[in-house]
Amino acid sequence: MNLLIYKTPEELNQDLADYIIKVAEVSIEENDRFNFVLTGGNSPKRLYNLLATECKHRIDWEKVYFFFGDERNVPSDDENYNGLMAKKELFDKLEIAEDHIFYINTTLAPEKAAIEYKKAIDNHFKGSDPIFDFILLGMGDDAHTASIFPHTKLVKNEEATVSSVFVEKLNTYRISLTAPLINKAENVAFLVFGENKAEAIKHVIGGEVKDFDTYPSQLIDPIDGKLTWFVDEAATKLLES
Ligand code: 6PG
């Protein structure tokens, strides 16, 4: 695991964008495509904007396929729909073709949406192992990632798949990639900044004890791939130096 600590989110985003571009160039060179899983939440907004503006000409975007690590069980025009933020900040600005974007279909019931999304992934990978080139993850202040929330069934799901989950604390369903599917990826990067994440970072990165049920982000440990944490100083202030 590689831990990169930055003074500011701006410096973090610049380096993370460069890293994404570097991985994309290699993937496109080797496989003529880059399978990129986006995170939801607020943290990536500036990064997506950076990719779509300053970095616009550094990737052959026509070779990029976008997926989502998770989705909220809301309509696609709802401001809480992760796909909508990505559409506004990234896809529309880069004029990404619709057939290169794999939204999670929340017009379906959560369980059906999860089944359909996994089918779409398997179809994209033509039945071969769904090994994404890059999975970008955020982390909540409760140490959840994607929609793998503490004390939910997703923590114990050992299948590399997509699952729906009812999140008691939010009183809502979510659809999410499972940790085993995330752990198949070639590259996984966490994007975490802000003081409110410091307690979670202390347990997930600094914690001696593995407690997946309480700190689900501890589950992220790529089998063969690379894990990098892009964090700022505020989020790591409780880490023992
Ligand atoms: C989501 C995300 C989720 C997110 C964390 C952090 O759908 O909300 O996928 O896992 O990354 O909740 O969210 P912030 O970046 O808004 O702190």
From TrEMBL:
Catalytically driven reaction(s): 6-phospho-D-glucono-1,5-lactone + H2O = 6-phospho-D-gluconate + H(+)
All copies of domain Glucosamine/galactosamine-6-phosphate isomerase, residue ranges: 8-229
Pathway per the UniProt entry: Carbohydrate degradation; pentose phosphate pathway; D-ribulose 5-phosphate from D-glucose 6-phosphate (oxidative stage): step 2/3
E.C. no: 3.1.1.31
Gene3D superfamilies for this protein: 3.40.50.1360
GO molecular-function terms, A-Z: 6-phosphogluconolactonase activity
CDD domains: 6PGL
Keyword hit for Hydrolase: yes
UniProt name for this protein: 6-phosphogluconolactonase
UniProt source species: Pedobacter yonginense
Gene that encodes the chain: pgl
